Amino acid sequence: MLHHTLLALLFVLGASQAFAFRAYFDYRVFHIPGEGPYIEFVTSFDGSTFKLAKAQGEEYQSKVELTLIVSQGDNVLDFKKTLVEGPLVPADAPGDFMSLERFSLPNGRYNIEIEIKDLNAPEIPAEKGTQSVVIDNLKEGAFISDIEFVSAYTPTTEHNAFSKSGYDILPYLSSYFPTQIDAIIFYAELYNLNNYLGENEHFAFYYAVQSITGKEIESAGKIKRLQAKGVMPQLQVIDISKVPSGDYNLVLEVRDKQNNVICSKKRPFSRNLIVVSDPMNEVVSMEVLNASFASKYTNRDSLVYIIQTHFPIAKSQERNTIDNVIPNAELIELQSFFYSFWYKRNPENPEAAWVEYAQQVNDVNEAFSTRIKKGWQTERGRVYLQYGPPNTRVQRPNDPDYWPFEIWHYYETRDNLHDRRFLFINTTLGQDYELLHSDVPQEAKNFDWKQLVRSRSMNTTANVSRNNNNPARDPYSGDELEDLWYNPH
What we know:
Layout: E1 10-13, E2 23-32, E3 36-45, E4 53-56, E5 59-61, E6 63-72, E7 75-85, E8 97-104, E9 108-118, E10 127-135, E11 143-144, E12 148-155, E13 163-164, E14 167-171, E15 176-177, E16 183-191, H1 193-197, E17 202-211, E18 216-227, E19 231-239, E20 246-255, E21 261-271, H2 286-290, H3 300-308, H4 316-324, H5 331-345, H6 350-368, H7 379-387, E22 392-396, E23 405-412, E24 418-425, E25 434-438, H8 449-458, E26 464-466, H9 480-486
Parallel strand pairs: 15-21
Antiparallel strand pairs: 1-2, 1-26, 2-3, 3-8, 4-5, 6-7, 6-9, 9-10, 11-16, 12-14, 12-16, 13-14, 16-19, 17-18, 17-20, 20-21, 22-23, 23-24, 24-25
Helix pairs in contact: 3-5, 5-6, 6-7
């Protein structure tokens, strides 16, 4: 199973249906003055995919052996093998669990080998993967650590692996914030401000949510007045309850008394804010509705299905209505929503806009339908409907060196994005392809896509990386897959 949730610096082990369990991996770089950088590796285990064994009484527990190997070239620099135990739970209620390991490493590029073994299921082979890591902390001057998203924190009462700066901090291993999360909790550290500004000198610490273009989102920014120290931990909360759906940056800045920016750091994230909509709010006058094309659709079940085909091009509020309200709506409500949907997109001729879209739905149904999905429900169909037909389409369905894959390239998408690409992969060898990687901001980011595409011939477990900060690939490397990606034919 491929995982397409937007997760920064996240890897999924067991990316194919052939593998038995799932674990998610994240890392952040921090610094100890006088000693140097260190990396925190956090592994989150999906408890439902690991075997439970009886522990005590009526309680059960997962047990996992986690091995991390840090290397540079052919040299192994550090190695840790850890027994990770899940929570004590009933046999029918597995719980997720986490592990955190720290490695002190100087600036440089490293390879991290990861191996996970379910100790309660010795018959299942260990899952393995690798990932490159780059550390480039400043040796002099003031700077800020990586930004860590936090799911929960409490004051430390007994020191443990998750203890830091007086708190037990549970990381949030995602850069996606759904509607039910109304605040971002983050942890970061400020370094060397006492040397740069002077001990106890005042400065401003600014943190805010900004759009991709750099515009601050109202009500999602703060400025704190602080005094300079050597290491300054910052555990802060930002209200995002009014931040609409979209892609953003969490931005941290240190400013001096003249408001000059001394150092900064940012981390991208995605927000999905669903505002519950009542389709009756879309109701138009009966006179207009009876005269419209929507009144021709009098079979309720057929109209429900037709509206569901709008999902690929619907906005977030409309998608919520299609998912949660439309299935139980009355016919007049369906007709009203249907008419309003197309009137908002083409007030001059909403019926012509619908007819054009209906033909596109027929096209993707013919091209991409499987035994269990209509074409518009597939990833290729959704991308086609949302962004338009691609200008070029690379298809490799039968190459023994790769999983079947396609690369779609757009000179310009329907929403005016230029020079954009989508890569789809089929690891089940069935009819359906899943979206693996795209350079469109809100789409899946899997920067180890080459390894995953090749994993069919290599017969190895592939990591699925979602790291928007990974260094750009070389479009002139001579690698065939990169050539197809950057120079589609």
